[in-house]
Amino acid sequence: MTRKQKRLAVIAGGMSFILVAVLLVMFAFSQSVAYFYMPGDLAKTPVAPGTRIRLGGLVGEGSVMRGEGSVVRFAVTDPSGQIVNVRYQGILPDLFREGQGVVTEGAFETGSTVFTADTVLAKHDETYMPKEVADKLKAQGLWEEGKGPTSLSEVPQGQAPQGAEAKGEAKAQEAKGQEVQAQETKATP
After folding, report:
1. Are residues 55 and 69 in the same domain?
2. Which strand (E) or helix (H) includes residue 119?
């Protein structure tokens, strides 16, 4: 073999190795892809039984029914008003509750309209509050479970409000606090 033939053989071997690796990766991804649907999407475009999908929406109010063992049945709804009944066997996340966002992964059984989930992910809202702050607000009676503080005036001191409205309201609160403090010093003999 000449030098040129050896070089071509090495290049051809390398290219074939890369081609096989790319094909294996593509095959693996095609087996693990789970498309995301909401109940309204499923009403428009039915999915073949046994096809793995992700179903997302809100847990329907009054729909959670606990069965024998760790079996839980609930409904997933969306703004379009469509409902998909879900069956899950396992331990639910701590944030799972009615009216809360949820993403389930699984498939429809053959001949059934019930979605059988093997994974349930509960979504939290964007009003995160550290536990210590929430406990203090609860002790003061300013915290509603599941809703958080209802106005900026209820945000504890030391937490910076966000946005232009919040800055104006924060200045108003600061001025009000100084006014109250001035009245207290006048009232003390």
Report:
1. yes
2. strand 115-122
- Label the pairing between strands 35-37 and 65-66: unpaired
Domain count, the chain: 3
Which residue segment(s) compose the domain that 78 sits in?
A: 35-122
Q: What's the distance, CA 106 to chain centroid?
A: 17
- What does residue 35 show for φ and ψ, rounded to 5 degrees? -75, 150
C-alpha angle 49-93-63 in degrees, rounded to nearest 5: 60
| Cα angle 66-102-31, degrees, rounded to a multiple of 5 | 105
Q: How far apart are CA 137 and CA 51, in angstroms?
A: 46
Full-model pTM:
0.53
Please tell me the distance from the alpha carbon of residue 148 to that of residue 189, in angstroms, as a whole number.
40
Q: What is the pLDDT of residues 47-101, one digit of tens each?
A: 888 888 888 888 889 999 998 888 999 999 888 888 999 999 998 888 888 888 8
Question: Dihedral angle at the C-alpha atoms of 156, 159, 163, 167, nearest 10 degrees?
Answer: 70
The answer to whether residues 98 and 164 belong to one domain is no
